[in-house]
C-alpha cells in the first residue's frame, strides 16, 4: 500500500536538483545543456524513485509515470527536429540570409530591439505559436542583431517577449485555450481579462527595449562591418525578395490552423526546393563541382539538402563573423535539447507517480489565508511546477485543478484563476533551462537560457504584474450572484 511521505521527504529530490543545477551553472557555465543538467535530472529522478519505493510505490507505476510524461512531450520533440531541419534548408536556400540582408538594409540599430519585439508579437498573435515564431522570424532577427553587434541575450529577450505576448493573447494558442478550460471560464472572457495585466507588461517591455536601443551608439567601424556582411551575402547567395514567400506561406499555414508538424515539414521541403531552383552556384561550390550535368546537379542538391536538414550547413563567405552567423547543425543541433527534455519529463513523471509532487503542491494550501495570498500561492505554484515538472502544461493543469474550488470559496470569478495561470505559468516556462520551453528556445536560438533570461522583460514582469493587481485590488472580479447560486 502506498503511504504518503512528509513534506520534508517530498522536497528532498527538489532540493537536490536545485543544488546540483546550481553547481552545474557554476562549473560549466553556458555549456550545461551538453550533459550535466541531463544527468542531474536523471539522478534526482532516481532519488525520487527510491523514496517512492520506500513509501510503497511500485516500480511499474513509476516507470509508467515517466513513460506517460515523456509521451506527452513527443509532439514537442518532433517539432524540435523539424525546426532544426527547417533552419538548415532555409539557410542553404538563402531564405534566412536574404531576411538578414534586407533587415540590415531597413532596420535602424537604435530601434532594432523595439521593432523585433513588435514584429514577433504580431506574428505570434496571428499564429498562436511562440515556438513557430521564434523558429522562423526569431532566427532571422537574431542574425540581424548579431550583425548589428547587439548582445545576443538582448535580441533573444526582445524576440521571446514579443513571441510570448502573442502566444498568450492569441485565441489560436493552446495554452490560452487550456487555462480557461482548467479554471472554468470561457476563452474570450479570459483573453479580455488578461489585457489588464498583459498590456502594461508589454508596454513596459517595449519602453525598456526602446530606451536600451536609444542609449546605444553604433560605431563607424560597426557600420562598415555591416556593409561588409551585406557584400559577402550577395557574393555567396542569390539574395532576393522572392525568398520571403516561403516563410510567409509557412506562417499562413499556421494561421489557417494547419498543425505545426506538417506546416514545418512543408516549410523544410519548400526550403530545399528553393535551394534547388535559386542557389545552383552555392550547391555546386559546396560539392566542389563546376558546370555539372543535370543529373550530377540533382545528386549535389540532394546531398546538400539532406546534410542541411540533418547534420550541418557551413558556408564560406570570406567574412568570419558571417560564417558563424549562417552555420546551422540541422536536426543534430537539437539532440542535446531533446535529451534534456526526455530527462526532465522523466523526473516530472516519477515525481508525479510517487505522489511527491502532489504532496508539495497540496502543502502550499496552508499559505492561503485571503484572496491576495490565494493569487500569490497560485502564481508561486505555477512557477514551482515549471521548475520541477519541467512542463508548462502541467504548470497550468495542476494549479488549475487544485485551486479552482478555492477561488469560488473566496468569491472570486474563475477568470482571476485563468489569468494568474497564464501570467505565471505560460510565460515563465521559457526562463527555466530544463523546462521543455526553455530548453527548446535555447536550442532553436543557440543561446543559453541564462544568457537571455535577464532581458525577457515581458516574461519577468507578467507574474509581478498579476500580484500587483491582486494586492492593490485592481480589476479583481467577484462572482456574480447567479454564479454563486449555481454552485
Describe the overall structure.
- It is built from 26 helices and no strands.
- It has 487 residues and is mostly helical.
- The mean pLDDT is 85.
Instruction: Supply the number of helical segments.
Output: 26
Radius of gyration: 24 Å
Model regions low in confidence, pLDDT < 50 over at least 5 residues? none
Shape: globular
Q: What is the beta-strand fraction?
A: under 5%
Quote the average pLDDT: 85
Q: What's the helix-strand series?
A: HHHHHHHHHHHHHHHHHHHHHHHHHH
Major sheet: none
The percent range for helix content is over 70%
Give me some keywords for this one:
single chain; 487 residues; 0% strand; mainly alpha
Provide a quick synopsis of the model.
By secondary structure, the chain is mainly α. It contains 26 helices and no strands.
Amino acid at each position: 500500500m502506498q503511504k504518503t511521505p512528509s513534506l520534508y521527504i517530498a522536497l528532498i529530490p527538489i532540493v537536490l536538483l536545485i543544488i546540483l543545477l546550481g553547481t552545474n551553472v557554476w562549473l560549466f557555465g553556458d555549456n550545461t545543456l551538453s550533459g550535466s543538467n541531463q544527468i542531474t535530472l536523471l539522478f534526482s529522478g532516481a532519488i525520487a524513485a527510491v523514496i517512492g519505493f520506500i513509501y510503497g510505490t511500485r516500480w511499474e507505476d513509476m516507470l509508467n509515470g515517466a513513460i506517460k510524461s515523456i509521451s506527452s512531450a513527443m509532439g514537442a520533440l518532433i517539432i524540435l527536429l523539424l525546426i532544426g531541419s527547417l533552419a538548415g534548408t532555409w539557410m542553404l536556400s538563402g531564405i534566412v540570409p536574404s531576411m538578414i540582408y534586407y533587415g540590415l538594409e531597413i532596420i535602424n540599430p537604435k530601434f532594432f530591439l523595439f521593432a523585433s519585439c513588435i514584429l514577433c508579437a504580431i506574428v505570434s498573435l496571428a499564429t498562436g505559436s511562440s515556438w513557430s515564431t521564434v523558429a522562423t522570424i526569431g532566427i532571422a532577427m537574431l542574425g540581424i542583431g548579431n550583425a548589428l553587434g547587439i548582445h545576443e541575450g538582448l535580441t533573444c529577450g526582445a524576440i521571446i517577449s514579443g513571441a510570448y505576448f502573442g502566444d498568450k493573447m492569441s485565441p489560436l494558442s493552446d495554452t490560452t485555450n487550456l487555462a480557461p478550460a482548467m479554471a472554468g471560464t470561457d476563452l474570450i472572457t479570459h483573453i479580455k481579462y488578461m489585457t489588464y495585466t498583459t498590456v502594461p507588461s508589454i508596454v513596459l517591455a517595449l519602453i525598456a527595449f526602446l530606451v536600451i536601443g536609444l542609449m546605444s551608439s553604433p560605431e563607424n567601424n560597426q557600420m562598415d562591418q555591416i556593409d561588409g556582411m551585406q557584400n559577402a551575402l550577395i557574393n555567396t547567395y542569390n539574395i532576393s525578395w522572392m525568398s520571403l514567400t516561403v516563410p510567409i506561406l509557412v506562417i499562413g499555414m499556421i494561421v489557417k490552423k494547419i498543425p505545426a508538424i506538417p506546416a514545418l515539414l512543408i516549410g523544410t521541403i519548400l526550403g530545399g526546393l528553393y535551394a534547388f531552383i535559386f542557389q545552383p552556384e552555392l550547391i555546386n561550390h559546396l560539392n566542389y563541382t563546376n558546370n555539372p550535368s543535370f543529373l550530377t546537379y540533382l545528386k549535389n542538391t540532394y546531398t546538400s539538402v539532406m546534410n542541411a536538414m540533418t547534420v550541418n550547413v557551413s558556408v564560406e563567405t570570406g567574412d568570419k563573423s558571417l560564417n558563424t552567423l549562417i552555420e546551422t547543425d540541422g536536426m543534430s543541433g537539437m539532440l542535446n535539447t531533446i535529451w534534456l527534455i526526455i530527462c526532465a519529463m522523466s523526473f516530472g513523471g516519477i515525481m508525479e507517480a510517487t505522489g511527491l509532487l502532489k504532496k508539495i503542491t497540496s502543502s502550499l494550501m496552508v499559505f492561503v489565508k485571503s484572496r491576495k495570498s490565494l493569487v500569490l500561492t497560485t502564481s508561486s505554484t505555477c512557477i514551482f511546477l515549471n521548475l520541477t515538472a519541467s512542463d508548462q502544461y502541467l504548470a497550468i493543469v495542476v494549479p488549475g485543478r487544485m485551486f479552482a474550488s478555492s477561488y469560488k470559496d473566496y468569491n472570486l470569478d474563475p477568470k482571476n484563476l485563468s489569468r494568474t495561470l497564464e501570467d505565471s505559468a505560460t510565460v515563465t516556462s521559457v526562463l527555466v533551462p530544463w523546462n521543455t520551453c526553455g530548453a527548446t528556445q535555447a536550442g532553436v536560438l543557440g543561446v543559453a537560457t541564462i544568457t537571455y533570461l535577464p532581458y525577457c522583460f515581458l516574461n519577468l514582469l507578467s507574474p509581478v504584474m498579476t500580484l500587483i493587481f491582486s494586492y492593490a485590488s485592481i480589476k479583481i472580479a467577484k462572482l456574480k450572484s447567479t454564479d454563486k447560486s449555481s454552485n
